[in-house]
Design goal:
The structure is a single chain. The chain starts with 10 loop residues before the first helix and ends in a 5-residue tail after the last helix. Strand 1 and strand 2 form a beta hairpin. It folds into two domains: 11-183, no CATH class; 187-219, no CATH class. Helices cover 49% and strands 2% of the residues. The chain has helices at 11-20, 31-43, 54-62, 66-79, 86-96, 98-121, 171-183, 201-214, and strands at 144-145, 153-154. Strands 1-2 form a two-stranded antiparallel sheet. By secondary structure, the chain is mainly alpha-helical. It is globular and about 50 Å long.
Length: 219
Amino acid sequence: MFGELTLPVGVAEAAATAWSDLGRPGRQLTGVERIAVATAAREATPRPVWDRNGGLDALHAGMGDRRAVLVALAAIFATEASLIDRELVTRLQAEIGDTSYAETAAIVAQVITVDQFCISLGIDTATLPPAEAGEPSRERPEGMGDAGGHIEMTVPFRGPNVARSLSLAAEDHLRWRGLVLSMYSRDAFEEMVWTDRALTRPQVELLAARTSSLNECFY
């Protein structure tokens, strides 16, 4: 995926792991649905200010058609996540289930993370893998509970809420976390001073905060 580039330890491995599992049936989504979600996330573009509700219109219009809902939701996750509120999530849980919601979000998070990493390096994004046949396991992760978020997540838990926010997605959550850790803190999240990398901890946090602001991240 990254050719001869020299990358921080673990980045290439985490990206390869995420990519190799995109087309495989998950807990709730089939391989075909997962690739449809990944494709929608990759092709989504931010809407102009005067059409900010266009994504929601597409989502509401698709209600009753599972694939249409997943695709529309993926586009919102990718470019307009600030449109999502508790009322919408409650409706989506009734429509597709909270675990399908979490799995969709986790797929989008993986695709956007890897794609933007490639774009920032000035290299081509990787071709999406083919969808694999088979049925989802339909298993719900154990240890989930109400932690005050829109959906259930791991309880109890020590650490930042973002680290458990998509735990309903189980394996996809772990693959996304692998990307985050390899590209961000590795094993030094609780260390306030980093001396073994090109950017200092304050510089990294400044970039993270600015990116979150541009993405209208409520977290």
